[in-house]
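Open question from group meeting: does this chain pack into something compact, or does most of it stay loose? Before anyone orders reagents, we agreed to write out a predicted structure and look at it together. Recording both the input and the output here so the notebook holds the full record.
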Amino acid sequence: MTLTKRYADTAAIGYYAMGNFGGLEILDVEYGINDKLVTCFNWGNGREMIRRNTIYTTRDGRQYIRKA
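Structure tokens returned:
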């Protein structure tokens, strides 16, 4: 099953506003050896670019992702 079909109707668990009309939606956290965050952009016209992003950790223990 593709990510688009799997997350088409699920509610987002978090948002990161990137402007007045939308931003980054956090859809899921996939736990494993390398934890991944499922994210997409939503500008009011539906979800775009649903991707799995690896969660990285700095030396200080702060976590971040790189959205491609």
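Observations to bring back to the group:
The chain has one helix and six strands.
Residues 3-64 form one domain.
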